[in-house]
């Protein structure tokens, strides 16, 4: 996983609340068995509408998504995170994220920056008026700057540390393999086995 | 201070805990299916790691599998590739698997409990959000993403931050004809699709105690639709009776030791929840959804609400969008909504009791002209049990289609889909846009309402058939 400290890029205003993972990437795309190449599935139903924000040329190449509350609800599909990242997003800003989506994002290196809804409203306005505004997201100081706007965001402290260090979860856990083995030795005999 | 049920199960699974780090939790059971696992196995291969405990891991094929002609190769090449990848991965990593055609195959959340693998006080995970189903047994069970699947495969543990706890107490007794599905739809409408976020919900109270294990699973299944990570119900005699004698249930002295532990698994009187919700069961009635998230529900006897019925600006907007997508007018009596397809199945309501409830309503009636009904058992065992009871005949005689086991039209990854604009009454758990097929419109209902709807061709309760 790449280390994440500061990211600067243009942004897309997604004026929608309750964007569930079925909208981010429909079930169809879940049939694939690879880890990459999901950019074509991102918001694929909405992208059929030429007016949809991702189809507007002024937002081409954006890497920061600014969404309404309850982003990433519904199915736990991690493909939603892969699709956002494969498309080129590095950061999603919202005033409320679904838990599983947020957890998945942290593991893949997609930053979910939690801000108050009025910050989202201001960012939307700023980006809609000036689509070429550069948005800078600084994980070290937990700040977002865009045009004249500066705001702080919330991110889980542990996730922040892992993102900044670029650390892989499994490797971290396997440092404690002896403790796991010890725990296993004490599990009651009545616990079921699958085989 | 005492502990809640969720806190007790958590405490008993902490492998390692350190300041400023998530707890490392041991996982007792890891269920695997074809959709969320291929990339996890890929990850293991990439890093040269093994599955630590294949004996605590179980795979089944459910999301993609067809429900017709299952003796033939899967026609859709992508579905076939995904199922084949699972088979190959299980073989390579030594993970037990129930494939299509096996008597134990079925939806992962139906298979675990019916084998007796899901037991009180366990930690159960699966790369599927409806893992919350297993909480009905007093297990701490939750959905995980694919990198967590890889993590559990490699280490049999997960680093996790403690959840907050919410008590949902359902007092009193349910009126006749009102079921577990109606309870949970009413709860989600009350607390909203984000209301349970960050919480483990514990369902308590007289009306919950009175439910069968099937009913409890229906409730816990949909905890995720209220935004919660998990739902739990303290185990009691109903739970023990359900587990006893099943294939993987403890036997002999192990059974006694297990039951005496399970009996400690309840929230202490002096424990504190972070939030509490109380519902009076006697006020509930058959409930359906009218919108495009499971929180957009109303009693069957109500009218379709309009944006003006909501105060919150984002709810107003959501209602407006939902009505447009669902092609509904505010003020229309819900009972006048015409239904094209009735889907009975899924991990919410594809168990034997659900099939019995629907068959009891359907018996002696016919599915309405212009309406089709699909009955998809949650597992092969459910299918066989239903056939032994003659339920399949009731469905077929009424004009419904009797299918093989799988997720089917719950998420339309297999050929069972709604066509654009088609409207369904579905016993599944999600009414999201396009969930049952692109452009499809879904109303979530209980099995009894599904059956009555099939007969009348409009959203109906069994009482409407008299
Ligand atoms: S039946 Fe539906 S909700 Fe349940 S596991 Fe299958 S797809 Fe998921």
Shape of chain A: globular
Number of strands of chain B: 19
- Assembly state: heterodimer
* Sheet having the most strands of chain B: 5 strands, parallel
Average pLDDT score of chain A: 94
Strand segment tally of chain A:
8
Main β-sheet of chain A: number of strands, strand sense, barrel status?
Answer: 4 strands, antiparallel
Please state the average pLDDT score of chain B.
96
Q: Name every ligand kind in the structure.
A: iron/sulfur cluster
Major interchain interface with per-chain residue totals? A-B, 57 and 80 residues
Structure summarized in a few sentences:
Chain A is α/β, with parallel strands linked by helices and 195 residues long. Chain A has 8 helices and 8 strands.
Keywords:
heterodimer, A: 195 residues, alpha/beta, four-stranded antiparallel sheet, four-stranded parallel sheet, 8 helices, 8 strands, 33% helix, 16% strand, globular, B: 466 residues, five-stranded parallel sheet, 16 helices, 19 strands, binds iron/sulfur cluster
Task: Show the helix and strand layout.
The complex is a heterodimer of chains A (about 200) and B (about 475).
Chain A: E1 6-9, E2 11-14, H1 21-24, H2 44-47, E3 64-67, H3 79-87, E4 91-94, H4 99-108, E5 111-114, H5 117-129, E6 135-138, E7 143-146, E8 149-152, H6 157-165, H7 169-174, H8 177-185
Parallel strand pairs in A: 2-3, 3-4, 4-5
Antiparallel strand pairs in A: 1-6, 6-7, 7-8
Chain B: H1 5-11, E1 14-16, E2 23-26, E3 29-32, H2 38-47, E4 57-60, H3 77-93, E5 97-98, H4 108-115, E6 123-126, E7 140-143, H5 146-155, E8 157-160, E9 164-171, H6 180-191, E10 199-204, H7 206-209, H8 213-221, E11 230-232, H9 237-243, H10 252-262, E12 275-280, E13 287-289, E14 297-299, H11 313-326, E15 341-344, H12 346-349, H13 352-362, E16 372-375, H14 380-388, H15 391-398, E17 401-402, E18 423-426, E19 441-444, H16 447-456
Parallel strand pairs in B: 3-4, 3-6, 4-5, 6-7, 9-10, 9-12, 10-11, 15-16, 15-18, 16-17, 18-19
Antiparallel strand pairs in B: 1-2, 2-8, 13-14
Bound molecules: iron/sulfur cluster.
Iron/sulfur cluster binds near residues 62, 407, 411 and 429 of chain B.
């Amino acid at each position: 996983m790449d280390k994440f400290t500061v990211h600067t890029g243009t942004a897309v205003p997604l004026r929608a609340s309750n964007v569930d993972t079925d909208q981010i990437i429909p079930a169809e795309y879940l049939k694939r068995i690879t880890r990459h190449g999901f950019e074509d599935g991102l918001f694929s139903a909405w992208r059929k509408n030429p007016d949809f924000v991702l189809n507007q040329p002024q937002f081409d190449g954006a890497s920061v998504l600014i969404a309404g509350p309850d982003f990433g609800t519904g199915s736990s599909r991690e493909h939603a995170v892969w699709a956002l990242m494969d498309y080129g997003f590095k950061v999603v800003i919202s005033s409320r994220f679904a838990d599983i989506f947020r957890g998945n994002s942290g593991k893949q290196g997609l930053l979910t920056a939690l801000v108050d809804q009025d910050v989202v409203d201001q960012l939307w306005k700023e980006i809609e008026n000036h689509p070429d505004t550069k948005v800078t997201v600084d994980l070290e100081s937990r700040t977002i700057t865009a045009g004249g706007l500066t705001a702080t965001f919330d991110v889980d402290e542990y996730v922040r540390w892992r993102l900044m260090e670029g650390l892989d979860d499994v490797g971290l856990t396997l440092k404690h393999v002896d403790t796991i083995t010890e725990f296993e030795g004490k599990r009651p005999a009545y616990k079921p086995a699958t085989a | 201070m005492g502990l809640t049920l969720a806190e007790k199960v958590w405490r008993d699974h902490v492998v390692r805990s350190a300041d400023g780090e998530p707890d490392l939790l041991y996982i007792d059971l890891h269920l695997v299916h074809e959709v969320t696992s291929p990339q996890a196995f890929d990850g293991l291969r990439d890093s040269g790691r093994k599955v630590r405990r294949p004996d605590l891991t179980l795979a089944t094929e459910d999301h993609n599998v067809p429900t017709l002609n299952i003796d033939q190769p899967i026609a859709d090449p992508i579905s076939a590739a995904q199922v084949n990848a699972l088979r190959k991965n299980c073989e390579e990593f030594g993970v037990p698997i129930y494939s299509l055609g096996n008597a134990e195959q079925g939806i992962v959340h139906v298979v675990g409990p019916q084998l007796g693998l899901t037991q009180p006080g366990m930690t159960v995970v699966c790369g599927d959000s409806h893992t919350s189903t297993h909480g009905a047994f007093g297990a701490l069970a939750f959905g995980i993403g694919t990198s967590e699947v890889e993590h559990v495969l490699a280490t049999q543990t997960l680093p996790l931050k403690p959840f907050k706890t919410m008590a949902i107490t359902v007092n009193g007794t349910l009126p006749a004809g009102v079921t577990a599905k109606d309870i949970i739809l009413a709860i989600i409408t009350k607390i909203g699709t984000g209301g349970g976020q960050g919480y483990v919900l514990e369902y308590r109270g007289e009306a919950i105690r009175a439910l069968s294990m099937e009913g409890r699973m229906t409730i816990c299944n949909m905890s995720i639709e209220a935004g919660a990570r998990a739902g739990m119900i303290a185990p009691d005699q109903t739970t023990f009776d359900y587990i006893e004698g099943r294939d993987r249930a403890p036997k002999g002295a192990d059974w006694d030791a297990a039951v005496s532990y399970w009996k400690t698994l309840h929230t202490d009187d002096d424990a504190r929840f972070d939030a509490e919700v109380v519902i009076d069961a006697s006020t509930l009635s058959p409930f359906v959804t009218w919108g495009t998230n499971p929180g957009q529900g109303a009693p069957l006897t109500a009218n379709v609400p309009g944006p003006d019925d909501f105060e919150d600006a984002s709810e107003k907007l959501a209602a407006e969008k939902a009505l447009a997508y669902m092609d509904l007018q505010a003020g229309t009596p819900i009972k006048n909504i015409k239904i094209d397809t009735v889907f009975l199945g899924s991990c919410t309501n594809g168990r034997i009791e659900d099939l019995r409830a629907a068959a009891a309503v359907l018996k002696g009636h016919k599915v309405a002209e212009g309406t089709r009904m699909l009955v998809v058992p949650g597992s092969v065992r459910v299918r066989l049990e239903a056939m032994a009871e003659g339920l399949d005949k009731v469905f077929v005689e009424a004009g419904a289609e009797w299918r093989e086991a799988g997720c089917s039209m719950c998420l339309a990854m297999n050929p069972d889909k709604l066509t654009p604009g088609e409207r369904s009454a579905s016993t599944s758990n999600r009414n999201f846009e396009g969930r049952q097929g692109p452009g499809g419109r879904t109303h979530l209902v209980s099995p009894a309402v599904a059956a009555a709807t099939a007969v009348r061709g409009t959203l109906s309760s069994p009482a409407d058939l008299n």
